[in-house]
Amino acid sequence: MNKVIAIANQKGGVGKTTTAVNLAASLAATKRKVLLIDLDPQGNATTAAGIKEESPNTLYEIFFDNISINESIYESSGGYQILPGGQDLLALEIGIRNQNQQQFLAKTIKTITTDFDYTIIDTPPTLNQLTIEALFAASGTLIPLQCEYYSLEGISGLMDTIQSLSNKNLSSNRVLGIIRTMVDMRNNLAKEVSEELEAHFSSILFNTIIPRNIKLAEAPSHGVAALQYMPNSYGAKAYLALAGELIRRVENV
Ligand SMILES: Nc1ncnc2c1ncn2[C@@H]1O[C@H](COP(=O)(O)OP(=O)(O)O)[C@@H](O)[C@H]1O
Ligand SMILES: [Mg+2]
Fold first, then answer.
1. Residue 51 domain-assigned?
2. Per residue in 178-225, pLDDT tens?
3. pTM as predicted
4. Probe ligand 1: pick from 7, 14, 18, 185, max atoms within 8 Å of CB?
């Protein structure tokens, strides 16, 4: 089935990487075969996946050194597999543009020989070529959003980009859902914004709310997802619930 899902929002610090890693681990816990692709030069998802190699293959080696993606997939600490990311991806971003190789990631994913159920792509906090590569490759996009004023402003550009790619028949990508992250319901503003999202985006808003939970912030420094670090934490349970909701939407079960 390999459902390719991009996690995107050009704002930084909204919970993209946390969502990518914990969703990958939660989907893997439901016996789905999951590949996580780290497309962010910061490589945070790679660290959180517990990858110990000094310089693992990334999409950079696949692009410049003609290495197969199948030789660049590593086992993570969370039951899913990962194509790591890192600083080299900055050069890749330029390389793809200079050599006019747009849609390189989409083509590369088609050459994967393992039968993955889900491929989750973590993207950088900009709408650059790396993020566009993810949007080209994905059939759905998840948008993590913090419940603050202005948090919606950033996503209109992202939604327009997804729409224009599909209008030009360059991709079948659509917004699969908006995810409320780092929510503290004791905070009145968060509650207000959350209710506003329910009113305006009811059709695509995920019911699962990801709470602000310190275990989600601590787990990456141990190279694991919250599900491995503290399975009973609110954070780990919230991402399990999110995975369940995603499965119901995507697999119609
Ligand atoms: N639900 C949460 N509760 C507590 N801390 C969180 C939560 N989600 C993310 N964080 C922390 O917030 C920071 C930014 O999250 P991150 O996932 O890296 O965002 P992005 O990838 O969008 O830049 C990180 O330090 C992360 O550990
Ligand atoms: Mg990130």
1. yes
2. 999 999 989 999 999 999 899 989 999 999 999 999 999 999 999 999
3. 0.97
4. 18
Look up the domain containing 33 and give its range.
3-248
In a domain, 253, yes or no: no
Tell whether ligand 1 has an atom less than 6 A from the beta carbon of residue 16. Answer: yes
- CATH code of the domain covering residue 55: 3.40.50.300
Q: What is the rounded CA–CA span in Å between residue 234 and residue 212?
A: 9
| pLDDT per position as a tens digit, 109-142 | 999 999 999 999 999 999 999 999 999 999 999 9
- CA-nearest residue for atom 17, ligand 1, is 15
Tally of domains in the chain: 1
User: How far apart are alpha carbons 127 and 105 in whole angstroms?
Assistant: 16
Q: Is residue 62 part of a domain?
A: yes
Task: Give the C-alpha separation, 84 to 86, whole Å.
Answer: 7
| Nearest atom, ligand 1, residue 213 CA | 3
